[in-house]
Structure formats: structure tokens, C-alpha cells
Amino acid sequence: MLHPPASVPRPGLPWPLAPWALLPWLASIGWGWWQTLAGQLGQVPIGAGAGAARALAVGLAVALLARVAGFIAESGFYVLWWRARGSHIPFWRLSSWIAALSAADLLAMSLGRLAERHGGALPLVLAPLAGASLLRSQVPGLDAGLWVGFGSLGLLAAARVALTARVQAVALDRRIAAPLALTAGAWLASRVALWWIVDLARGMSPLG
What global pTM score does this model have? Predict the structure, then answer.
């Protein structure tokens, strides 16, 4: 008597690292974002007092929490998108992947700061990798909101988008085309929204 072949179980989405290594890795990512945000917000001037230092620490904590909330929101968007189409992605595993892959963003920002410090031809050399914002001095007349929205566009940003799509494809056990289209579209929409928000905050209309 013939029996139908047993179905092959779907591999599912693994955690980015083994349990013993995942928390230290995520902690190092969090520390990297703390350092990066501290560099962006600046330092407390000498003699400013304890109040200014506390205010800066609170600002850094809020900025870091906002970054974590961004990872969770991004993961939630993908999970809900695929759930509405009858597919399941484990939320916390995807969130941990998105947080881990933000190391590409940290690397791009670090290379950007390196290029800005040393100047010369370094911004031109690193711009394709770290982001178009390194070329801002070469195109001074371009809209500031456009630089904020799309200044991070480079190979590292593209790699993060591609890897985020790859993680979804693994979780869904499908080809990467649809997850890549979704992830790239979400990235593009977020960049356009940021561009418009900056222009509106400056009293400009993003439509003309």
C-alpha cells in the first residue's frame, strides 16, 4: 500500500545568534547607538552644571528608546503585513534581527564621521558606501529635507534593506522578490515622509 510522503516542516526563522551570544550582541548594538546619539546631541559644556548633564542623559535615553521603538515598529509592520496575507513571522525574532542588522547603519554613520573629520577626498571615496550625505558640500543648493531623507542612501543602507528582506524570506520560506519589494518600498516611504516632515518643520511645502 502506498502512503503519501510526509510533509517537510518549514524551517522557520532562527534567532540571529545563539542564546548565550544574543543578549551581549544586542547590548553592544545598544551601546553603539548610545555613543552615536551622544555624538549627534553634543557634549555638556564645561561648567554647565549637573542639571545640564542630567538633561543630556535624559535626552540620550529618550533618543535611544525612540530608536528601539523604531525597530519594534518596523518589525510590527512586516509581521502584520504578512499576517494579513495568511503568513506568520515570529515578532520578537524578527525584531532581534532588525536590531542586529542596524549595525550596518552604525557602521555607515561611523564612516561618515571619519570622512567629515579628515576631509580631502575621503568623503568622495566613502560616500557610495556610507551615504550620499557625504557629498553635501559638493551640491550646496540641494534641499535640506532631501539630504535628511535620503542622505543615508549608500551600499550599507542597501545591504540592510536586502538583509531585512532576506530574513523575511527565510521566515516565510519563499523567494526574496516580494519581501524585497515590501522592504524597499517601506524604506522609500519612510525616507520621503522624513523629507516632507523636515521641509514642513522649516515652513516649506514639500510639493512645491
Answer: 0.84
